[in-house]
Predict the structure of Class F sortase.
Amino acid sequence: MTPLSRRVFAGAAAASLLVGCAGHGTTRTGIPRHGGYPPPGPSRTPGPPSRTPGRAAHAPARSAPVRLRIPAIGVDTPVIRLGLAPDGGVQVPPVTAHDRAGWYRYSPAPGQTGPSVILGHVTVGAYGDGVFRHLARLHRGDRIVTRLEDGTAAGFAVASVRTVAKSDFPADDVYGDVDRPELRLITCGGPRTGDGYLDNVIVFAALSSPSP
């Protein structure tokens, strides 16, 4: 599958991000009642990414992530693929006792130019803590390793960690065009209400090693 274009990502700017909030205010599938990851927009459908002339010949082959390790917070999890939900929002990982992170398959694969997006729960209802429960504890320079389906790996270093209100989700910062491989890890955070969490925790990371 090909990643969404920059224009499609921009269509999500006004949508509310409620990923990773399993528990109160969710359906039985674990997708919050008010929607999942921001939809591409009512008049848009997934399409190929915009390309910069001269880059295509040097782009690495696309290979899906299958495992994610974040040593600083003890994360070592399989990675599943996430697509679009029937309501047009983006799927979130299922709520299970063995919580896993999920890669949004319409974003670039880790190691490709652009922002690769991986989502995870902070809590998983009756099962307790989610795989991204300590995401907000990461610091600049902490290492993230994504193992890929083709047997290679892409290593990233945390550039920044931001906690933002869901009502002010920085879509351009998360989805905007970048000229290098980057990674976004997203979960919920901040105060908890009856419908989930009020904020999102977003980790921004840049490629540090193509094959650690």
